[in-house]
Amino acid sequence: MSELIDIFTSHKSERSFTEQPVDEAVLDRIISTAYRAPTSVNSQQVSVVITRDAGRRAQIAAIAGGQPWIAKAPVFITFVLDMHKSAVGMAAVDQQQIAHQSIESIVSGSTDIGIALGSVMAAARAEGLGIVPIGGIRRDPQAMISLLELPPLTFPVAGVVIGHVDEPAHQKPRLPLATFRHDETYQTQGLEQQIATYNDEMVQHWKTIGRNDGESWSESVSGYYKNIYFPDVLPALLKQGFGTDK
């Protein structure tokens, strides 16, 4: 197995970090992977905001629902869906942007952010650092927009914590590969049993690492998906100038 593939398949979301700074040259190399990542129609509709200031990281930790690893680790990167710069670029040739009025722009931009985020996570781990991606910043997107002073036609989609690991995390089991990989057409047969088996495996995983309160996968995902758990996303998107009805 190549070293690159091993980086991806050995992924763990770390939540225990030291306060040791990340070397500036290392951070530059990590950021360069997102900077050079592909984007739809070369729109380059991704920007990143680097937060090192301890006070600001503490604010982000609170915005994300109280995640102390955001405050503890030395670097937090926010990935921003950015159609502000494309609007400015179009204005330079006397054109008006309308794509941001469509849900497609949000899907496309979020896809590009996922690619950039994955690149950064792999690069950070290749540099010997730990990471944990953070979606919790969407819990209060308006607070993030204000904190980072984001202009209209931008939106903070996700973030990532980067730092030196203190106590390494355990890699979680996954649903069977057959629930993920579908050859030619989507396969639904046997899904219920595969999920049931995985639920038992997850409970055993938690017990193995000393977590007797650990939930099954079905229970865990239900805790999130039985509600609209980030209801402030749509109002913030609309306030930033995005549309969803086209």
TrEMBL record:
GO MF: FMN reductase [NAD(P)H] activity
Family matches, as Gene3D superfamilies: NADH Oxidase
UniProt key word Cytoplasm: no
SUPFAM superfamilies, per the entry: FMN-dependent nitroreductase-like (SSF55469)
E.C. numbers: 1.5.1.39
UniProt-listed Pfam families: Nitroreductase (PF00881)
Alphabetically ordered keywords of this record: Flavoprotein, FMN, NADP, Oxidoreductase
Keyword NADP annotated: yes
Protein family membership: Belongs to the flavin oxidoreductase frp family.
Entry protein name: FMN reductase [NAD(P)H]
Name of the gene encoding the protein in the UniProt record: nfrA2
